[in-house]
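I am writing to request your help with a piece of structural work I have in hand. The matter concerns a single protein, recorded as an amino acid sequence and a row of backbone structure tokens. Could you please explain, in whatever detail you think fit, how the structure tokens follow from the sequence? Thank you for your consideration; the sequence and its tokens are set out here:
>
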Amino acid sequence: MSWLNSVRNALPFVAKKATPDNLWHKCKGCGQMVFTKELEENLYVCPRCDHHERIGPRQRFAQLFDDGGYVQLAAPRVPEDPLKFRDSKRYVDRIKAARTATDEPDALLNARGTIAGNKVVVGVQDFAFMGGSMGLAVGEAFVCGVRAAIEDRAPYIIFTAAGGARMQEGILSLMQMPRATVAIQMLHDAGLPYVVVLTDPTTGGVTASYAMLGDVQIAEPNALIGFAGQRVIENTIREKLPEGFQRAEYLLDHGMLDMVVHRKDLRDTLASVTAYLCGERRAA
């Protein structure tokens, strides 16, 4: 036995410490590695480039409601596979996989709570659940959120994030567009505000319906907002689109949004907007 092996055998064995997989996060904006704890404390906004990461309903609720307290509304029950759809996988299998990955029933959740002491009902779409796609469950959840707001005599605030209608439900998914429009009219008939916050990305049938019907239209910085994709539009009109086309700041400059608000200021902005709108409607 060599002297090196003798030294190795004499040293105490120390197990290699495993590094948690979620200790660091790679920013999708600048590509830099960010300490996950630092990202969470900064509301999931990159402290280096200010890129707003996509977040789910529970993180959003915790950021918005007073003291992070809220009551989640029960998810509505709808037919899960009305068309018995199958592509490379069965639709029911895709739903099961999405539920396992997100631990959510579908792509839209509602919750009751208060913002700065004022009652609100907030709906949040989860892009992680099949791209936030709009199907029967999302449409019914939207209507339930509006009904809850009417019952509470409170504003309804929706955070949109979607790739559009859910193709596996065909025409039934497209029917959620007029249903949502009727629900918004019910809210207006009750004299209550409807506020939309568009997050990255909001596209397709969601943009063509309830995402663009708010009394006030707000967006997070650099959010992608549009109907058809940029490449599809360019191939159709045979022209190069302007720099930043379909981004929140471009839409603000062209009158399609009322404001673009940083996530750290969003709670205070919503408190001011809803308080003002509720005051105006009470006076009317």
User: Anything to note?
Assistant: The CA atoms of residues 222 and 249 lie 6 Å apart. The chain has two domains: 12-53, 54-283.
